[in-house]
Design a protein that fits this description.
The chain has 340 residues and is an alpha+beta fold. The chain has 12 helices and 18 strands. The two termini are 30 Å apart.
């Protein structure tokens, strides 16, 4: 009896169902999976060809009979069927030898998710064989994962810059005092780079190339040393493959609009924070998490624009799933912060 209960508990999963990547945390084992949120379908026999890493390799390279689909858009489910199959695949892959046990699942979602969108996430998880599903705000999960003392009577501010959304939260006494989710984040930055290269160089590049450019050249403020890289794509007028050289100044110009929107959202959050908590944030500063926190000089840009201390979480890419994972062993706190 005790062994069976232990096996059930250890089978619980926390999931960061992100627009760009999905991370899964298994109780007692830590992060067991981190793969792109992509599904490749065979259009002829309606079967799944690949999920995650394998599916990402197919983007832009598939024959006509195979379609690579991103089930998540702006942090919420855009393709219900694909999301269900992707979740089922990831849950099954994360369960090792305990596949006959239906896990309890905690999922991080954007703070301004609608009731209909919440229901879509829950339904997908239940269809993927979850026994019980709890939703928590990504900002709250990121704060817990970053190690912020959310249960204390102090103001804590977290800015989680993911793939589809940037989630901003001010937390005190295990409650969200202010939260906002803006649908501008890593994917919007990739799109801005694609549009800039097309406009300035008449060059068409894909999402994977744009992401690589962002990671190598992208920055939120001036870099100490000039950076350049060669980028290959298709010329829009001539239709042939060509190579251009891009530098960090150009990419910084391309990224200025999405970065400015994120900075403005943070400033709006600070304006709407109660005075006592504002004083705490002045002392403690702002914590950045998510993949966008790794954009060069993002912390420096926010520090300059807000005048506050800004730090980056120890493991920014995994903050949300680590925070959700901690809830698997603290059910009382989970009940307090759950969106149910």
């Amino acid at each position: 009896m005790f062994l069976g209960a232990l096996q059930f508990m250890s089978n619980d999963l926390a999931i960061d169902l992100g627009t760009a990547n999905t991370c899964v945390f298994a109780r007692g084992r830590g992060i067991v999976l981190s793969e792109p949120s992509i599904v490749a379908f065979n259009n002829i026999n309606d079967t799944i060809e690949a999920v995650g890493n394998e599916a990402k390799e197919m983007i832009g390279r598939t024959p006509g009979c195979i379609t690579a689909v991103k089930p998540m858009r702006d942090g919420v489910i855009a393709d219900f069927e694909a999301a269900e199959k992707m979740l089922g695949y990831f849950i099954k892959k994360s369960q090792k030898n305990s596949r006959f046990v239906r896990p309890r699942v905690v999922i991080g979602v954007p703070s301004q998710i609608t009731q209909v969108e919440r229901r879509a996430v829950k339904d997908s998880a239940y269809r993927a064989k979850a026994s019980d599903v709890h939703l928590i705000e990504e900002g709250m999960a990121a704060a817990i994962g970053a190690g912020l003392p959310i249960t204390e009577a102090y103001g804590n501010m977290i800015v989680d810059i993911g793939g589809g959304t940037t989630d901003i939260a001010v937390i005190s006494l295990a409650g969200v005092v202010y939260s906002r989710s803006v649908r501008v984040a890593g994917n919007a930055m990739d799109e801005a780079i694609i549009n800039y290269v097309k406009r300035e160089h008449n060059l068409l590049i894909g999402e994977r190339t744009a992401e690589r450019v962002k990671m190598e050249l992208g920055s939120a403020s001036l870099l100490p040393r000039r950076k350049e890289m060669e980028v290959k794509g298709r010329h829009t007028l001539e239709g042939k493959p060509v190579t251009v050289v891009l530098n960090d100044d150009q990419i910084r110009e391309a990224l200025e609009d999405p970065i400015r929107q994120i900075v403005q959202a943070v400033r709006d959050a600070l304006e709407r924070t109660p005075p006592e908590l504002s004083a705490d944030i002045c002392d403690r500063g702002i914590v950045l998490s998510g993949g966008g926190a790794l954009l060069q000089n993002m912390d420096e840009r926010l520090r300059r624009e807000t005048g506050l201390p800004v730090s980056i979480a120890e493991d920014p890419l995994s903050s949300v799933v680590l925070g959700a994972g901690k809830m698997l062993s603290d059910f009382n706190l989970l009940k307090k912060i759950s969106l149910d």
